[in-house]
Automatic annotation (TrEMBL):
Organism for this UniProt entry: Neopusillimonas maritima
Ion transport as UniProt keyword: no
Name of the protein this chain belongs to: Methionine aminotransferase
GO molecular function: transaminase activity
Keywords, in A-Z order: Aminotransferase, Pyridoxal phosphate, Transferase
Database matches in PANTHER family: FI04487P
Glycoprotein in keyword set: no
InterPro entries linked to this entry: Aminotransferase_I/II_large (IPR004839), Kynurenine-oxoglutarate_AT (IPR051326), PyrdxlP-dep_Trfase (IPR015424), PyrdxlP-dep_Trfase_major (IPR015421), PyrdxlP-dep_Trfase_small (IPR015422)
CDD domains per the UniProt record, alphabetical: AAT_like (cd00609)
């Protein structure tokens, strides 16, 4: 007898990242779509991993993570944002920010709950909420009308979406894919909402150290009222150019973290010991992350200027992350997916359609003729991409 499998995610297929990356490989394209560097991390970090292995750090650490790393994270957050998290009860090392997000969402919402997701959004948020049995309530951001502008959160729409069933609000700053970063006014709105409705926040801050134009990163940890209601998530992969290591962390008040650790325990239990040991030693020097914004801002400016001078694509202002948006509105009438497909197959440069980060990628409201490009690449990679785009 055959038992039919009833999918828990019937609407989920192959992700746009897998589709475009495979298409990029098939066409020998320059892949500026998926967000990962094409250069190695600091040699010292790799040496520290090897050293940890030779010293015998090859077995399970404690569930929450290697103690020295928990302490280092606690001290970093306190130094940068002024909030003290207990290394013992309020920080957990996770298998990338992905697991931190998934474990947090599964732990903190369930059947009968509503979770507000701001659109466009990183693709994990929606299925994670659905797997938790909660109902996603999607609220669209206001798109920019000029290259010097950026997406903005419409807080009036957020308030209209709140209900007695709302349990979580998922936010992301610096924002992927739009590059928008939260301003003080945004934190004021969040404080007002938290105070009025008592909801919890999941704050995806994986690009916390990549903020441009001299602006600071405004973490939820930087305001006591928000820190008390937030799960703050970050990524060593994004900070140290090691996305393949899949190590991140989350910080939250003890009551929230207790529930998150219950899910974390049975999802992965714990993560790579020698890498945790190495990271605890490496991040002791604040210079390993303090100059990341200027490092990536130079790459952002370079790609933006080259696009502006040499191609018909119009780069938009990037406020943070290692992405920028570019418009092809004056060049083509294709929808975003078709344009990215054509760009990969015809000119062998891969981008990601911004519409892929919407619930309905084919809807007119999801297609603003914008593509997302990753500039976390070597200069020769960016130069080769521009050389190919000159033929547009």
């Amino acid at each position: 007898m055959t038992t039919e499998i009833r999918s828990k995610l019937p609407s989920v297929g192959t992700t746009i990242f897998s589709i475009m990356s495979q298409l990029s490989i098939q066409n020998k394209a320059i892949n500026l779509g998926q967000g990962f560097p094409d250069f190695n991390p600091d040699k010292k970090l790799i040496e520290l991993v090897n050293q940890a292995m030779l010293e015998g750090y090859n077995q399970y650490p404690q569930l929450a993570g290697f103690h020295d790393l928990l302490i280092a994270i606690s001290e970093k957050i306190e130094n940068l944002y002024g909030h003290r998290y207990s290394p013992e009860t309020e920080i957990t090392i996770t298998s990338g920010a992905t697991e931190a997000l998934m474990s947090s969402i599964l732990a903190l919402c369930g059947t009968g709950d509503e979770v507000i997701i701001i659109e466009p959004f990183y693709d994990l948020y929606l299925p994670a909420v659905q797997l938790a049995g909660a109902t996603p309530v999607v609220v669209a951001m206001d798109p920019p009308t000029h290259p010097n502008e950026n997406y903005k959160i419409n807080w009036e729409k957020i308030r209209d979406a709140l209900s007695s069933r709302t349990r979580l609000l998922i936010i992301n700053t610096p924002h992927n894919p739009t590059t928008m970063v939260f301003k003080n006014d945004d934190l004021n709105e969040l404080e007002s909402i938290v105070n009025q409705y008592g909801i919890n926040i999941i704050s995806d801050e994986v690009y916390e150290h990549i903020v441009f134009n001299g602006n600071p990163h405004l973490s939820m940890s930087s305001r006591p009222a928000l820190a008390e209601k937030s799960v703050v998530i970050s990524s060593f992969g994004k900070t140290y150019h090691v996305t393949g290591w899949k190590i991140g962390y989350c910080a939250a008040p003890k009551a929230l973290m207790t529930e998150i650790r219950k899910v974390h325990q049975f999802a992965v239990f714990t993560v790579s010991t020698p890498m945790q040991v190495a990271l605890s030693r490496f991040m002791g020097d604040a210079n390993t992350y303090a100059n990341l914004s200027s490092f990536y801002e130079e790459k952002k400016d370079y790609l933006s200027n080259q696009l502006r001078i040499n191609t018909p694509l119009a780069p938009y202002s990037s406020e943070g992350s290692f992405f920028l948006l570019a418009s092809y509105a004056d060049y083509s009438d294709l929808n975003e997916y078709d344009f990215c497909h054509w760009l990969t197959t015809k000119h062998r440069v891969t981008a990601i359609p911004l519409s892929a980060f919407y619930c309905s990628p084919t809807a007119n409201t999801s297609n603003n003729k914008l593509i997302r490009l990753c500039f976390a690449k070597n200069t020769n990679t960016l130069d080769e991409a521009i050389a190919r785009l000159k033929c547009l």
